[in-house]
Automatic annotation (TrEMBL):
GO molecular function: DNA-binding transcription factor activity; transcription cis-regulatory region binding
Cited Pfam families: TetR_C_11, TetR_N
The protein's name in its UniProt record: AcrR family transcriptional regulator
DNA-binding region boundaries: 47-66
Stored InterPro entries: Homeodomain-like_sf, HTH-type_TetR-like_transc_reg, HTH_TetR, Tet_transcr_reg_TetR-rel_C_sf, TetR_C
Keyword line: DNA-binding, Transcription, Transcription regulation
């Protein structure tokens, strides 16, 4: 059989020295699966086998990219911590309401449990999660800092205003509200996140305004 005939009978492409072409969708699928798997069961039950099953890939494919489960989870959480920039609505109250709505949607989403799991695992003293927790906390703090900076520039807040309590009140109120939602109602509340988040934002703003002017800095009514 000649060379041309042999080439004609080949049914699979030749392998190159670099191995198989990588599936570009594998990384985002694996990272999403890692967050979902960790959010479901926490670090104690987090395995590459579980991530591979959830992502629909072979475990070997994960090992080629992430040699350990710590590296995989670090990348997954690093992407998770990159939150979108807080909305600039033109007023402190509008910004706080937009942030509260986004936070409630985040905590009610399946991946929202990642934030809670990291906080719990970090609090137990697991060093692996200290940096993970700091990434998420830093991202949230930067969001509040940007919102406060805009409020100072607009003259809504005096320079040097202590906003630590406000940030804790906002995140705390939204988090507790999300945890109080029954599992069967999570999607429904998510679809109406704004209705649930607005009074929580106004409550947190009271830590900055001392409870004065319930209508808020933009002069709009609570309704």
């Amino acid at each position: 059989m000649g060379e041309r005939a042999r080439r004609g009978t080949r049914t699979t492409p030749p392998r190159t020295g670099r191995g198989r072409t990588r599936d570009p969708s594998l990384t985002p699928r694996a990272l999403a699966a890692a967050r979902a798997e960790y959010g479901r069961a926490g670090w104690a039950s987090f395995t590459l086998d579980g991530v591979a099953r959830r992502a629909g890939v072979g475990k070997a494919a994960l090992y080629r990219r992430w040699p350990t489960k710590e590296r995989l989870l670090a990348d997954a959480i690093g992407e998770h911590a990159r939150l979108p920039a807080p909305a600039d609505t033109g007023s402190l109250r509008g910004d706080a309401r937009a942030l509260a709505t986004a936070l409630l949607d985040h905590f009610l989403a399946p991946s929202g449990w990642v934030t809670l799991r990291v906080a719990v695992d970090a609090a137990t003293g697991l060093e692996t999660f200290a940096s993970f927790h700091e990434q998420i906390v830093r991202a949230h703090r930067e969001g509040v800092a940007d919102m406060v900076r805009r409020a100072v520039e607009r003259g809504e807040l005096a320079p040097g205003t202590d906003t630590g309590t406000f940030g804790e009140a906002l995140y705390g109120a939204v988090l507790v509200h999300a945890m109080a939602v029954a599992p069967r109602r999570r999607e429904h509340v998510r679809e109406h996140a704004g209705e649930h988040a607005l009074p929580l934002a106004d409550f947190a703003l009271a830590s900055l305004t001392g409870g004065a002017d319930a209508a808020g800095a933009d002069g709009s009514s609570a309704d």
